[in-house]
Design a protein that fits this description.
Elements (H helix, E strand, L loop, with lengths): L7 H6 L2 H12 L3 E2 H12 L3 H5 L2 H10 L3 E3 L4 E4 L9 H10 L11 H4 L33 E4 L6 E4 L2
Antiparallel strand pairs: 1-3, 2-3, 4-5
Helix pairs in contact: 2-3
Length: 161
């Protein structure tokens, strides 16, 4: 699709990214973002003042659109023009180069100062910590009435829970 073959009413209804796609496809070369945006604005017949406020939106749109790819030095192009060739032999060779051996670490006297020795200490809690605990049988665990003091009426009542 070429811009010259598209009538003006269709161009006005096209989105920015669709216009950018057609422009890059027609030119066949990479373009700077600002130049691409200016070309899109020219096609939509936007004045400079109104086009400046849409530059950030255009960048966000192009950045998230999968049809475009950002290249070095601020250039943009169509992703279809840049294919990545991955050779499995290279990947397999990289895996073989990785060594997983761990070397023993020598510790110095200064390092020993910071070793946490608390993991070797047994539990310090003695029986004194548990002396206030009471063992309750199942029969004793039934709820008993509780006295309640009403601050408004100054009456004491027995509550049954």
């Amino acid at each position: 699709m070429k811009l010259k073959t598209i009538n003006e009413s269709d161009i006005e209804t096209m989105s920015y990214d669709d216009l950018a796609y057609v422009i890059l496809k027609e030119k066949g070369t990479k373009m700077k973002l600002l130049d691409l945006f200016k070309e899109v604005c020219n096609q939509l017949k936007l004045d400079e003042l109104s086009s400046e406020k849409y530059l950030a939106d255009f960048f966000s749109l192009i950045s998230t659109e999968k049809r475009f790819i950002q290249l070095e030095k601020g250039f943009w192009d169509l992703r279809e023009n840049h294919k990545v060739k991955v050779e499995l032999n290279d990947i397999e060779d990289d895996d073989e180069d990785i060594e997983t051996e761990e070397e023993p670490v020598e510790t110095t006297e200064e390092d020993d100062m910071y070793i946490d020795e608390t993991k070797d200490i047994e539990d310090d809690r003695g029986e004194d910590e548990y002396k206030d605990l009471v063992i309750i049988d199942d029969e004793e665990s039934q709820l008993k009435p509780v006295a309640y003091h009403d601050p408004v009426t100054q009456k004491k009542e027995d509550l049954k829970c």
